[in-house]
Write the structure tokens for this entry.
Amino acid sequence: MNGSRPTLRELGISIGTLPTGRYNGITDVPGVLVGHSTIIEGEGPLVPGIGPVRTGVTAIKPHPGNLFQSKVPGAVYVINGFGKATGIAQVQELGVIETPIVLTNTLSVGQAWDALCEYMLEQNPDIGVTTGTVNPLVLECNDGYLNDIRGRHVKPHHVFEALNGASSGPVAQGNVGGGTGMSCFGFKGGIGTASRCVELGENQWIVGVLVMSNFGSMKELRISGVPVGLELERRLGTQAKAPPGSIVIVLGTDAPVCHRQLMRIAKRCQGGLARVGSTFQNGSGDFVVAFSTANQVSHKDPSPFVEGKWLRDDSRELGRLFVAAVEATEEAILNSLFAAETMVGRDGNTRMGLPADMVLDILKSWKP
């Protein structure tokens, strides 16, 4: 679901060896929902606080129910901590996620946190009265090259739009939601997603990944191991300047894994990130949020014990989930590039959409 831009696989490029899910997206994990709110307003010179605006919000719901009352096992892996995320410390400490996951731009984290908090309070009148408080999970990337980021144009109704509009099925990618103003490898980046099926014997699970990509310089881009970026620089006669940037990776699965094992799976996403050319620079904020929809944790369960069944760490099944995390991350990032269209932002700053025909020609003619 990418407008007029063909997907990676529609262009005949396959990544990895595992099969994809039906939609090749994080929504292939049963129950997972994704919603966007896209804000595009104005053009021309930057007037801080006024525009032009190229930003938005993306919301991921691990299941359609009340996440505070039915929490999911979760983990956060920080590849490089140059970021302004909220809520990650409690997830790392307790191993559960109790709100939807919201992605937006760096200076709109506060507004997104406030709106997500309000959303959870409306759903749960007991929060702060007869039970504890809530831990809104918000992550960000800097879209200031195209967007009037100082204007903090993300408002509560945008966050509510993404949350209330979250749905299953195909996921819109590219210049949508939180990815609206993002850049990747010197081209237009944004939202991308992919999934992998893990089948062993009678067991079948899905690993889905959604990314908000905003990192890398053109020369670093690699596709299927081919140094495409170097050749793109030569053919285009340009060296697009780009700051170190950031990426947020959200991984979901229905496999029965505990929060410690989710951390192990989340770490493998770094492998997919490296495959496309990331070198995790100093100013890059690279975060992975992982959750499992199995073994949900009831907020009101009076038992002092947690019941559940998890995969063995030395099982073939867990090993296959590691493979799925690498492959789905790699493809989700590339999908964010192939789906994104050229965008002109503030001060005429422009990020060109990845020239797919040129990329295909490079891949076909590549000789190591």
Notes: The first helix runs from residue 88 to 94. The mean pLDDT is 95. Residues 9-300+308-352 form a domain with the L-amino peptidase D-ALA esterase/amidase fold (CATH 3.60.70.12). The chain has one domain: 9-300+308-352.
